[in-house]
Amino acid sequence: MFSLGNRSRSRSRSRDRSEPRPPPRKHHKSEGPSNKDSSCDSQSNTSMDTVSVGATNGGPMIVERRAFTSDVERQLVEEVEKLKIELSKSLDNIQALQEREVQLMAKLSDQSQRYYTKASAAVSSTPDKQTLGLIHAFTKLYTDARQDALDALDVMSDLQQFDDADDIKTKLLFSVIVLSFRCCQVEIEEIMADMIKAARIPDTGHGVQSSTQTGYVKDLEQITLQYLHKTSKSYDITRIVEKVCGHLFSTLHDYPSLRMSSALKSYISICVQVAWQLVTHTPSYIIDYDNKEYNHQLHQRFHRNDSSTKIKCYLWPALLDASTMKCVHKGVVITQGPGGDEDYGDTKL
After folding, report:
1. Other residues' Cβ atoms within 10 Å of the Cβ of residue 344
2. Adjacent-strand bridge partners of 316
3. How many CA atoms lie within 13 Å of 106's alpha carbon, on the beta-carbon side?
4. Do the bridges between strand 62-68 and strand 311-316 make them parallel or antiparallel, or are there none, so unpaired?
5. Whole-Å CA distances, 161 to 110, 149, 157, 166
6. Looking at the predicted structure, is the pLDDT value of residue 53 above 60?
7. How many angstroms separate the most distant Cα atoms in the chain?
8. Which tens digits make up the pLDDT trace of 107-139?
9. 345 and which of 37, 38, 66, 313 could share a cystine (Cβ 3.0–4.6 Å)?
10. What is the spatial distance between Cα 324 and Cα 226, in angstroms, rounded to a whole number?
């Protein structure tokens, strides 16, 4: 019995081992509400999203795919990307503003330079102490030296015998100042011609003027003018005085006593000295005495009660700055009286 029981149990175990076991049961997804909620939860925890990242400085758009574990993280990332785009735009605007600032600064610098140049030109055009002294000397020629010469001519018998003696004396003294400036300018031209000749600068056959077109000649002229300006007070003007006297006495050959007048020669010498300093000055000064119409900026009337605009004659020329043509000393003129029909008198002899 015992053996049979054991044998039956042994068979039972063998049969259990030999019989195959059924496969495990598969869990199929159900379409019920619980499965939907589970799916939604799964999607909310992990999801794939596409994020567009704008490249800075006008570069291409970068597209990335990122996995977000929550809606909050996705919103934060999107906000960061927006801030990056705004930052890129702000940097571009800053760069544009900086470039604009550079342009404005350059423009402002150019305007400041032009203003400074104009201001410097205005300052440089203001006469210095030495120039004011020369202009004052020109004024003293009319107010003092001319009057002394007139007094000396009044006692000359050669002039007293003529009815128009006063007119002759006026023209004589006016011609002295005009000839002084003219002879001084001729002296400078002759010095320039001698310098060009001494330097053996070839002439084209049309005189000195065509030779002065070269840069070397202009430099030579500039240096020579600077030298003449610095030595104007000590320059020997004897030859210029002799030229003025020669022109004057050859015209007034009917008045031999003029050659013996020391007062007239002194007046001529003073006029030449002042004229030489004004002509060799930098900038140079010239005289004006050809206008026939009265101009209050250039002239002053000898007779203040006269209102005519027609100039009859000059008693003294106007002094002008040759570089700007600005009048620094007005000329003294006599205008045609009211109702006068006489011809305009020639001031020069």
Report:
1. 14
2. 332
3. 6
4. unpaired
5. 71, 18, 7, 11
6. no
7. 200
8. 766 655 554 445 444 444 556 888 899 999 999
9. 313
10. 19
